[in-house]
């Protein structure tokens, strides 16, 4: 901690020294060029450099004092008289110190003759430089005010961004909690149907599988996102339960590219699409059908597909008019996560049926945050 403080002090001192050396260089250069035009006004280099350093380097320690004073006594409507008095006293103190240093250095370099009285030179400084120094001091105060204002705006924007992130996270969690009871209800309904049909062993198998799914849902209840591998394991367990209920009527094919298993996806992104395919394509037909799940990477985009061989989209279908909660919920979650970069598209498959496509930015970081692409 001490090393960091010392390092910050050294950096600030170096920056201030560099800033206040610039007018030293400009001032001395102006004197030298002036002497080239009027040699009769020539002055030794020690006089020029000594005077310039004495005039300007005094502001190196004075600048942080002015900054501190501005923070301690801000020029607000209620406190401005106190601030003005504090700044005025500080300015006079800086001016006196500058005058004293200038006289001392001037005597050392010979720029000020030993016979010149200190009071006489101080009178000269007051007449020639007091207003000039006051403008410099006001400029420092203005810079301090600008920096503080920029810091306040930055802090305000940061707080607003954090609040927006918290609101987006709460929105996503609300959507997720809506989805979980919906999914659990469907699973319980499947178990009840097996029990009513006296398919006890199958009901027991479903209950065991349901217990695994329930454990996963509870363990991940506060998790906004998971790895693609976790999501696929959950979907496979869900399909195992449905396969017990549907038997040979359900055929599943899963094609996952080898380079996407570590991708991060929103939790329960595939299950509602798979459930929709089973509900509208497999269970409504005595012969059942096939569900294909495909995942691949296309550049910076992760593409997830769920395709069935059912009757396809009804005329005039839109997600807004869908009877189920899952697809609307998923669309809202994708919008909350990724803005325009998250897309859910429903279309007819190449050989009939329904093809649902989800495209999201490909990421491998550990855990997404519910931050919209527009803020990222």
Short précis:
With 376 residues, the protein is of the alpha+beta class.
Content of β-strand: 5-15%
Secondary structure: helix percent? 55-70%
Topology as a string of helices (H) and strands (E): HHHHHHEHEEHEEHEE
Number of strands: 7
Coarse morphology:
rod-shaped
Largest sheet: 5 strands, mixed
Overall mean pLDDT? 76
* Uncertain regions spanning at least 5 consecutive residues: 367-376
Major β-sheet strand ordering: 2-4-5-7-6
CATH topology of the largest domain: Heat Shock Protein 90
Structural class based on helices, strands and sheet pairing? alpha+beta
Structure description:
This protein has 376 residues and is an alpha+beta fold. It has 2 domains: 115 residues, no CATH class; 208 residues, 2-Layer Sandwich (Heat Shock Protein 90). 62% of the residues lie in helices and 12% in strands. It is built from 9 helices and 7 strands, in the order H-H-H-H-H-H-E-H-E-E-H-E-E-H-E-E. The strands form 2 sheets. It has a 5-stranded mixed sheet with strand order 2-4-5-7-6, with helices on one face. A two-stranded antiparallel sheet has the order 1-3. A hairpin with a 2-residue loop joins strand 4 and strand 5. Helix 2 packs antiparallel against helix 4, helix 4 crosses helix 5 and helix 6 packs antiparallel against helix 7. The radius of gyration is 38 Å and the shape is rod-shaped. The C terminus is likely disordered.
């Amino acid at each position: 901690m001490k090393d960091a403080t010392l390092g910050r002090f050294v950096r600030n001192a170096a920056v201030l020294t560099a800033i206040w050396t610039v007018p030293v260089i400009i001032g001395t250069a102006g004197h030298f060029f002036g002497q080239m035009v009027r040699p009769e006004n020539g002055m030794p280099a020690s006089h020029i450099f000594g005077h310039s350093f004495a005039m300007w380097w005094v502001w190196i320690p004075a600048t942080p004092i002015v900054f501190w004073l501005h923070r301690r006594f801000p020029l607000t409507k209620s406190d401005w008289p106190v601030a003005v008095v504090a700044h005025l006293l500080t300015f006079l103190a800086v001016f006196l110190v500058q005058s004293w240093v200038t006289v001392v250095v001037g005597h050392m370099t010979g720029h000020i003759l030993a016979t010149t009285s200190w009071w006489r030179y101080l009178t000269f400084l007051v007449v020639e430089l007091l207003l000039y120094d006051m403008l410099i001091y006001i400029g420092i105060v203005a810079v301090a005010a600008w920096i503080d204002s920029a810091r306040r705006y930055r802090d305000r924007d940061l707080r607003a961004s954090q609040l927006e992130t918290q609101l987006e996270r709460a929105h996503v969690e609300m959507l997720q909690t809506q989805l979980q009871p919906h999914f659990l209800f469907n699973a319980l309904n499947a178990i009840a149907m097996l029990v009513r049909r006296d398919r006890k062993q199958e009901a027991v198998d479903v209950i065991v599988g349901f217990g695994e799914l329930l454990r996963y849902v509870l363990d991940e209840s506060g998790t906004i996102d998971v790895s693609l591998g976790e999501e696929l394991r959950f979907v496979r367990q869900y399909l195992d339960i449905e396969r017990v209920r549907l038997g040979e009527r359900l055929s599943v094919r899963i094609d996952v590219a080898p380079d996407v298993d570590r991708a991060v996806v929103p939790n329960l992104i595939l299950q509602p699409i798979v459930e929709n395919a089973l509900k509208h394509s497999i269970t409504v037909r005595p012969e059942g059908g096939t569900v294909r799940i495909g995942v691949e990477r296309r550049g910076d985009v992760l593409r997830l597909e769920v395709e069935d061989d059912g009757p396809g989209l009804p005329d005039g279908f839109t997600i807004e008019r869908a009877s189920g909660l899952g697809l609307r919920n998923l669309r809202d979650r994708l919008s909350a996560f990724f803005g325009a970069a998250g897309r859910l598209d429903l279309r007819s498959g190449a050989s009939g049926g329904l093809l649902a496509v989800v495209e999201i930015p490909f990421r491998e970081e550990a855990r997404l945050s519910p931050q919209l692409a527009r803020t990222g």
